[in-house]
Amino acid sequence: MAEEHTMVIQRPEGPVAMTFGEVAAEQRTQYHKLGANAFGWPLSEEDYTEREEFLDSLPLTQNGKWRFWCVARADDPGQIVAACKTIHRDLLIRDAQGVRLAKGYGIASVVTHADYRRCGLAAFMMKRVAAWLDGEGNAAASILYSNVGDFYVDKGWKLLSIFQSKLSAASASPQWDRSALPEARMLTKEDIGKLCPIDIEYLKEEFAIEFMMQKLRGKTPTVKGAACDELGVWMYWYHDLRKQALLIQRIHTGVNESEVAIKALARLLTEALLEAKAWDLPTVVIWDLCPKTQKAIKFIAEELGVSAVSEERKDAELPSIRWRNAEDRHTIISPNEFYAWH
C-alpha cells in the first residue's frame, strides 16, 4: 500500500505495521465478526452477519452505495483491528448560492478491536476515510452520529446540538378517552411509499428491522406509522429492539396551524404509544421537535397523563458533520429527525 495508508504502532511483541484500505472479499468474515461483537446485540454473530448480507441486497446499498473500510495488520491482512462503513446519502443543501442536490455520506459502525485501542488507529482510519470522501468519494459533506462525545471533532466532524423528547408508554391504554381527537388510521409500509415518495429509498433500510423481529420475536410489525388523512398529517416509526424504543422517524405536521391540527398530532402520538406498548417497548423517542409537535406532547401529557421529558441529547448519537476539506460552515440539519440517520 501507499505510505500514507500505513502506520506503525507499538505492541508487546514490538513495532507492528498497520494498513488502511477497503475491506476485501476475503476479509468480510472478520469484518462482520468485529462488528457483531460491538453492535450485534441482541442478535447472535451468525444472525448479525446474515442481517448485514441482507442489507447488501437492498437498493440503498447496491452498486457501491455503501462501502466497508478497515485497518488490518500488514503481516496478517485477515486480522482486522478497526473498521467502519460509509453509506451514500443524497443531501439537499441550502446556502447563499441557493438550493441544490449534492452527494453525501453517512458514516457508521466505527469500531476498534479491544486489544488495539488507544493506539491511534481510529484517528488514522478516519483521516484516511476523510481523504477518500474529499477525493474519489466526491462528498459535499458527511455525517456521523457520535456515541463517544467529541471524539471526532479534531478529526474534522463538527458537533451539532440536538434535542429530543422521550414519552413513556407505561400509561398507554386502549381505554383512553380520545373522542376529542381526530380519527387516525394505521400505516403499512405500502402507505409510506405513497406518502413519502422522496424518502422511499431511504426507508427501505427499515426492512432490516423485520429480519430482527422475525429472529427474536417470531413475528414482524405490520404497523409502520399513523395518519390523519383529513388534515394531511402523518408520522412513521421504527421498532428498535436494541434501544428498546419506538423511534419516530418522520413527522409531517401539515400546513394547518389550528388547534385541531395539534390534536391530530396528539392522536398520532397516542397511536405511537399504544404501538410501543404492544411490542413491550417502554419509550417513544422523537428527535428535533417543531413547535406543533411540542404542543401535541403537552396536550397528551396534560390530558392523558403521559410522562414526557424533553432534553438535549448529550451522551449518544450526537450529529456531527464534516464538509469537504474540513471547511468550517455554520450548519443546521433540517429536519434533524431519526430517518436521516437510520
What do you see in this structure?
This protein is of the alpha+beta class. It is 27% helix and 32% strand. It has eight helices and 15 strands. The chain has helices spanning 28-39, 45-55, 121-134, 189-195, 200-203, 207-217, 259-278, 291-304; strands spanning 6-11, 14-22, 66-73, 76-95, 98-112, 141-146, 158-159, 163-168, 185-187, 225-228, 233-240, 245-252, 283-287, 308-312, 318-323. The strands form two sheets. It has an eight-stranded mixed beta sheet with strand order 1-2-3-4-5-6-15-7, with helices on both faces. Strand 4 and strand 5 (98-112) form a beta hairpin. Helix 1 crosses helix 2, helix 2 runs antiparallel to helix 6 (207-217) and helix 7 (259-278) packs across helix 8. The chain is globular, with a radius of gyration of 22 Å. The chain starts with 5 loop residues before the first strand and ends in a 19-residue tail after the last strand. The relative contact order is 0.13.
Could you tell me how far the N terminus lies from the C terminus, measured between alpha carbons in angstroms?
A: 33 Å
Helical/strand content category: alpha+beta
Reported for the largest beta sheet, the result is:
8 strands, mixed
Helix content percent band: 25-40%
Overall mean pLDDT: 85
User: Low-confidence segments, ≥5 residues, pLDDT <50?
Assistant: 198-208
Series of H and E elements: EEHHEEEHEEEEHHHEEEHEHEE
Overall shape: globular
Number of DSSP helical runs: 8
Q: State the strand order across the main sheet.
A: 1-2-3-4-5-6-15-7
Number of beta strands:
15
- Give the amount of beta strand, in percent: 25-35%
Rounded Rg = 22 Å
